[in-house]
């Protein structure tokens, strides 16, 4: 049973525009959420995180929003750049890490 | 500083054979994790070592999988005998701090194909 879900397998965005990647989870006991970015033939790399006690965390062009009542988080990238093209995994931390299936982002120059 | 390394990068074996994957964590990281991603699906937790001890192995699929971390340094994950459904990418990660607030550093993965 998947506890973290990314329902969009892919997303294409024009360079300079905003990319919004979504993630839903089922377990209200998760206390920490992370986004990882993965390039082909590489392992995931940590991008940004948010504690369950917050609703927003910003780091440069990346902002993560958490809506606990909806059990939903999103990653906003603005402005999007071609180098942002990668697979993005949402992850949640409880007794262990649970990952989503990933969303492949393509930023079109 | 060297990152997490994994060997081999690819492995193609036949059903019934044995394969051993190796992970070298970042030096000084006591926590070592194994994950697996089957084609197009989520990255799934397999197990977690703290030094040489298995902290949590609840994600191990079955007893054909054996993970070790002798001496608390590198770790091996052996699959014996391999089945078709074991195909996927096996990631290793390490971290300094245990618990929900750590940042895990991932290796590049080992792509295992079982024919």
Describe the overall structure.
The complex is a heterodimer of chains A (109) and B (115). Chain A has 109 residues and is mainly beta. In chain A, 0% of the residues lie in helices and 56% in strands. Chain A contains no helices and eleven strands. In chain A, the strands form two sheets. In chain A, strands 2, 4, 5, 9, 10 and 11 form a six-stranded mixed beta sheet that branches. Chain A has a five-stranded antiparallel beta sheet with strand order 1-3-8-7-6, with no helix packed on it. Chain A is globular, with a radius of gyration of 13 Å. Chain A starts with a strand and ends with a strand. With 115 residues, chain B is an all-beta fold. Helices cover 0% and strands 49% of the residues of chain B. In chain B, strands 2, 4, 5, 6, 9, 10 and 11 form a seven-stranded mixed beta sheet that branches. In chain B, strand 5 (43-50) and strand 6 form a beta hairpin. Chain B starts with a strand and ends with a strand. At the A-B interface, strand 4, strand 5, strand 9 and strand 10 of A face strand 5 and strand 10 of B.
Keywords:
heterodimer; A: 109 residues; mainly beta; six-stranded mixed beta sheet; five-stranded antiparallel beta sheet; B: 115 residues; four-stranded antiparallel beta sheet; 11 strands; 0% helix; globular
């Amino acid at each position: 049973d998947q506890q973290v879900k990314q329902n969009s397998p892919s997303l294409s965005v024009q360079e300079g525009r905003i990319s919004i990647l979504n993630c839903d989870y089922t377990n209200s006991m998760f206390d920490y959420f992370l986004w990882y970015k993965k390039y082909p033939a590489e392992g995931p790399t940590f991008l940004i995180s948010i504690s369950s006690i917050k609703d927003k965390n910003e780091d440069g062009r990346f902002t993560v929003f958490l809506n606990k009542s909806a059990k939903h988080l999103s990653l906003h990238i603005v402005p999007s750049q071609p180098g942002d093209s990668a697979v993005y995994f949402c992850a949640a931390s409880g007794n262990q890490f649970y990952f989503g299936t990933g969303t492949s982002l393509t930023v079109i120059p | 500083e060297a990152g997490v390394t994994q060997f081999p990068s690819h492995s193609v074996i036949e059903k019934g054979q044995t394969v051993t994957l190796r992970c070298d964590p970042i030096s000084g990281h006591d926590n070592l994790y194994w994950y697996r991603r089957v084609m197009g699906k989520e990255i799934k937790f397999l197990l977690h070592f703290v030094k040489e001890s298995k902290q949590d192995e609840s994600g191990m699929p079955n007893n054909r999988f054996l993970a070790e971390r002798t001496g608390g340094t590198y770790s091996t994950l052996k699959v014996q005998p391999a089945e078709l459904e074991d195909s996927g990418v096996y990631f290793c990660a390490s971290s300094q701090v245990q618990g929900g607030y750590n940042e895990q550093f991932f290796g590049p993965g080992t792509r295992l194909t079982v024919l």
